[in-house]
Design brief:
By secondary structure, the protein is an alpha+beta fold. 30% of the residues lie in helices and 26% in strands. Strands 3-6-5-4-7-9-8 form a seven-stranded antiparallel sheet, with helices on both faces. A two-stranded antiparallel sheet has the order 1-2.
């Protein structure tokens, strides 16, 4: 899931009027390298039928803190992201309930290949970085080893303003409840995929923001390492 951008050269023409009242005169031509657009990656369509029941997933769910080195497949990442915030209705309804259907959460996943931002509309991700940021997350997360050992770390962040515009001072409560719904969806989907996961709330918020270069209004609420359990 890497992207090679193509540089686009733009010519900037600066025109001025001469003292003699003649027409525009080109004074300078500058070559500007435009930034490549962020890579968008379409995810495989999520499967709506699994091999185990909801009851089995609930019974088998455990916090897993030891993982093998096997990477997650794109299919597995797709299903985990869909479980977190995937769209389930034409009007925009998602897998997790949201107060006022305002959907204040943003979900990211950090892997060895980079950082990806999930976009529920169209079930796709945007590549935010091609660097492996799991070591930085490990440092921000009090150096809990399962953060750097897991092949993927899902990050749930909140934009409180989306909910506050309708619910005012109760917004923080509603947003954090929604983060819990979303986290549980990821944990149960991991079980259904025969994977392991653990929810983490112990980390330095500002360090997670800095590690992932998150916008200032994105407050991290959860780190969720996911991988193949070490037997």
């Amino acid at each position: 899931m890497r992207f090679v951008g193509h540089a686009v050269l733009a010519l900037t023409l600066v025109a001025s009027l001469s003292l003699g009242g003649c027409g525009p005169r080109i004074e300078e031509v500058k070559e500007v390298e435009a930034s490549p657009p962020p890579e968008e990656i379409a995810l495989p369509e999520p499967r709506l039928k699994g091999e185990i029941s909801l009851e089995e997933a609930l019974a088998r769910r455990r916090s897993v803190r030891s993982f093998t080195e096997e990477e997650l497949t794109l299919e597995e990442i797709s299903r985990l992201l869909w479980a977190a915030q995937g769209m389930t209705a034409d009007w925009g309804g998602r897998t997790a309930p949201s107060a006022g259907a305002l959907y204040p959460l943003e979900v990211y996943v950090a892997t060895a290949n980079g950082l990806y931002h999930y976009v529920p509309q169209g079930h796709r991700v945007i590549s935010e970085s091609q660097d492996d940021l799991r070591l930085k997350l490990w440092e921000a997360g009090l150096r809990q080893d399962w953060i750097r050992e897991a092949p993927a770390v899902f990050v749930i962040t909140a934009i409180y303003e989306r909910t506050a515009k309708k619910y005012g001072g109760r917004a923080e409560r509603y947003v954090k409840l929604e983060a819990g719904h979303t986290c549980q969806n990821i944990l149960l989907q991991a079980v259904a995929l025969d994977l392991g996961a653990v929810p983490i709330g112990a980390f330095y918020d500002d360090q997670v923001q800095a590690a992932l270069s998150l916008p200032t209004d994105h407050e991290p609420l959860y780190l969720i390492p996911v991988g193949h359990p070490r037997k």
